Amino acid sequence: MALTGPHHWIFGYGSLIYKVDFPYLESQPASISGWVRRFWQGSHDHRGLPEAPGRVVTLVPEVDAVCHGMAYRVEDSVLAHLDFREKNGYQRVLAPLQFTDGRQLEGIVYIATEHNEAYLGDAPLSEIAAHIQRSAGPSGTNQEYLLHLAESLRQLAVYDEHVFELEALLLRETNQEAS
Ligand code: SIN
User: Fold this and answer.
1) Ligand 1 in contact with 30 (CB < 6 A)?
2) Is the CA virtual torsion 47, 50, 54, 57 positive or negative?
3) What is the rounded CA–CA span in Å between residue 145 and residue 139?
4) DSSP string, 16-30
5) Is 14 touching ligand 1 by the criterion CB < 6 Å?
6) What does the pLDDT look like over 128-156, one tens digit per residue?
7) Is 43 left (phi over 0), alpha (psi -120 to 50) or beta?
8) I want to staple 47 with a disulfide (CB 3.0 to 4.6 A). Which of 43, 55, 132, 156 is the partner?
9) Ligand 1 binding pocket includes 45 (Cβ within 6 Å)
10) Of 41, 45, 36, which is closest to residue 56 (Cα–Cα)?
11) Ligand 1 in contact with 16 (CB < 6 A)?
């Protein structure tokens, strides 16, 4: 496996797929094995507030699972920006990234484990959807985070049952309120 040098591959599986507020040298769809995407992390600083955290995604270990997202090759200096952006419980983890062209390279993934203070963990999907519907923070509404993520996964032709079920529950609730 090739190691990263002055440039690093970053793997994004949440907002890093659709909100690319950093320069990059190249990007490619990629996946990592042994992890699933879950709306189990609390957000105090982006999609919620300290007294009313929103729910955003993290990766949770699961044998035989594959999580698809987007990889970016970035300069070293971008890491400081990403460390700040992901400071609410996420830590850098090095993991093998699988690219669609067959390459496998080591990359950096921001993962929020159950040991961080903002971690919320599992809940019934209907509760997670309701939580997302009522939350908002400095980066915008929590709904927007979920809807953008679902849309960007569709654009990548990625099926993610957890994300798409939450999107369906949220849209059903929003449509009921509107009618
Ligand atoms: C990521 O996108 O890879 C990390 C989680 C997030 O910022 O939504």
Assistant:
1) no
2) positive
3) 9
4) HHH---S--SEEEEE
5) yes
6) 999 999 999 999 999 999 999 999 999 99
7) beta
8) 43
9) no
10) 41
11) yes
Burial of 175 (C-beta count, 10 Å sphere; 0-12/13-18/19+): exposed
Q: What percent of the chain has pLDDT over 90?
A: 92
Its pTM stands at: 0.93
Mutate to test the pocket of ligand 1, among 44, 86, 88 (most ligand atoms within 8 A of CB): 86
115, with CB counted inside 10 A (0-12, 13-18, 19+), is: exposed
Helix residue spans in the chain (DSSP H)? 15-18, 78-85, 125-134, 142-155, 161-178
Which residue in the list 86, 106, 144, 161 is annotated as catalytic? 86
